[in-house]
TrEMBL record:
Superkingdom of the organism of origin: Bacteria
Name by which UniProt lists this protein: HD domain-containing protein
Sequence ranges assigned to domain HD in this UniProt record: 2-80
């Protein structure tokens, strides 16, 4: 639940979307469940389950489908058209926020930073694996995304009460 904890920390920059982000943070990796894995691409499998079986909020489903630069991995798997055809992207600030939460949390829920998280993913899957290659390709966008969130957090802290 570390990803959801990160969502609660940045909630002040999301206003009415804070609960939506927290729900997506809790559910973002549900597609890893063996019972749900149909394509082997967890963002798509999870989003389909949430839409078709759980009848989850459409915006939560879309965030799960596109979390952490999923479109790049979908492209590598030949699933980008399916992903984008079934699930529209939410606003950039919400996609950035979920990426921030995911990439600042280790698999066991411990806080980390995006550089160490990318290195952990590449190391776990292997640098030449599909996921290792994808995560390195996505790294600049992951870093930019998390930087945009940090900029919004800093700006919010500078605002007078």
């Amino acid at each position: 639940m570390g990803v959801a904890e990160r969502a609660r920390i940045i909630a002040p920059i999301l206003d009415e979307d804070a609960e939506l982000l927290e729900a997506a943070a809790v559910l973002h990796d549900i597609g890893y469940s063996p019972d749900l894995a149909k394509t082997g691409f967890h963002p798509l499998d999870g989003a389909r389950y949430l839409r078709d079986v759980a009848n989850a909020d459409e915006r939560v489903v879309n965030l799960v489908a596109h979390h952490s630069c999923a479109w790049m991995e979908a492209e590598a798997r030949g699933l980008r058209e399916e992903l984008e055809g079934e699930f529209p992207r939410e606003s950039a600030h919400l996609n950035d926020a979920l990426c921030f939460c995911d990439m600042n949390t280790t698999p066991d829920g411990t806080p980390t930073n995006p550089i160490d998280r990318v290195n952990e993913i590449a190391g776990r899957y292997g640098p030449d694996s599909l996921i290792g290659t994808f995560i390195r390709r996505a790294e600049p966008e992951i870093l930019a995304s998390t930087s945009r969130v940090l900029e919004r957090v800093a700006a919010a802290k500078r605002q007078p009460m």
